[in-house]
Design goal:
Layout lengths: L1 H6 L5 E6 L9 H12 L6 E7 L2 H8 L4 E8 L8 E5 L18 H12 L6 E8 L11 H21 L10
Parallel strand pairs: 1-2, 1-3, 3-5
Antiparallel strand pairs: 4-5
Amino acid sequence: MQALADLNGGEMIAIIGCGNPNRRDDGVGPVVIDRLKARGIEHLGVKLFDAGTDGMSVMFAARGCTTLIVVDASKSGVEPGTIHEVPGVELERAYSPGLNLHDFRWDAALYAGRQIFRDAFPQDVTVLLIEASELDLGIGLSDVVAGSAEKVVGRIEVLVAALIPGQQACPVS
């Protein structure tokens, strides 16, 4: 990983989409990753990961990176499609065992990764959450969340362009 970071002015960015695409809007993280791949943002200094509901993948994918961006759905009760951009340090939490697919989530992975990997874990962590409308079983995002996903793609392109000189942010229509 270090050699890759050296080629990009020291930056190695991991962008991780979380969520279950079989639960409608919960799949927004993987959708954002697919859209970023289609836009050609992945290259030597930027790696894209679809972590599904596996928080452990978040922890290991982030190891050795300087910057981590996590994308997921949220259900906080605000208007569907609302985008929350939060520093990762504000959302980290210690692991609390449970018995479901979201048992070891990305928020626990942030905390554990920092404890386990120390300086090899990114200090620069941004979490982009999109407020879900539909979380029932089904495939495909609701219209409002699909629109917000496209805005998050644009925001990520801006964040990457600011970190890696010469990386262009694509215009978002």
